[in-house]
Amino acid sequence: MPSSIYSSQPYHLLAYGTLLGSNIFQTFFNGPLAFKALPRPQFATLQTTIIPAFFSLQTALPVILALTWPGEKIAGLGNAVVRRGDGVSGLLRHGHGEADFFWTALVPIAVMFGSAAVNLIVLAPWTTSIMKQRKHQETRDGKRYYDPGPRSDAMQKLNTSFSILHSASSIVSLVGTGYMIYYGFVLADRL
User: Fold this and answer.
1) Please, what's the b/e burial string for 23-57 (b: 16 or more CB within 10 A of its CB; e: otherwise)?
2) pTM for the complete prediction?
3) How far is residue 99's CA from residue 84's CA, in Å, rounded to a whole number?
4) Where are the transmembrane segments (predicted)?
């Protein structure tokens, strides 16, 4: 059994890998490919099922990153490594004369957490609500929201609301992705 099993560093690395990997997969592969491969109603059902679990994972993993922050390696004693400033307390040491991880680690982890939490708590439920309203409006109008031709004013408003919310969610996710990639370089310096 490797001695690192009792250290927080491998868990930090696994959490980061899962965070970035799941984000890249869902954002750039799963979502777009499913949209192309599935009829719209089935795609909507799939996304409505996947998105809450995805954003829950994306919200939980930055918390694990903060809890397992590796800090600063200050010495090596044989196979043992001595670290300082690990965990959340190390991330919160801003301006205390020691290594300052505020901008390089705490802010990126906080942005990753915040972007996923905003999507999980606000944007995804709101978007799902608009999708349900749009489904009811389809029944009233007798045509699907994406059918060509004139649309009712109510459907136009719902489509516009959906587009705005989906765009906002995408932008928030891309900000989180940018910070994930930046944090990968920060993490590489720590190893």
Assistant:
1) beebbeebbeeeeeeeeeeeebebbeeebeebbeb
2) 0.90
3) 9
4) 12-29, 50-69, 101-126, 164-185
